[in-house]
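README: folding subset

This subset contains proteins for which both the sequence and a predicted structure token string are available. Records are stored as plain text. Below is the entry for DUF4124 domain-containing protein (153 residues), shown exactly as it appears on disk.
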Amino acid sequence: MNKFSLLLGSLLLILASASSAAKFYKWVDDQGVTHYGANPPQGTTSSEVNTRANASSDQDRELEALDARRNARENAKEEAAKAAEEETRLKSEPDELAQERCEQHRKNLETLKNKPIVRRKNPETGEMEVLDQEEREKMIKNSQKALENCTRN
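--- output ---
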């Protein structure tokens, strides 16, 4: 009876591991987006993805890289939309836009001079970072130059 239980347990374990190792596929569409699924699409080259829990896989790294590329693409689209909107406003409302920019420079200069710690969003990573003294001085000079142009107009 003991051998039978051991044999039955081993057989169930083998069947359970075989069923959990379902096949999944990875492919890239025409827009460069990577997809994962149980069935590969017809007419597209796909590769099998290793889904075993104890096997080595770079799937997490690939998913992180995919998220980073998607975020970068989304940020680029947003920046392009902002630039297009500003270009339209520059043509239709140049004086109002110049006043808004001058006001923003005044606020930035006040913040840079009066706050002991200034943070900004890193344009490359999207993370918040504390300005070092050198960068702070550089931004103060740039804001002062911009404000000189504001008073001339």
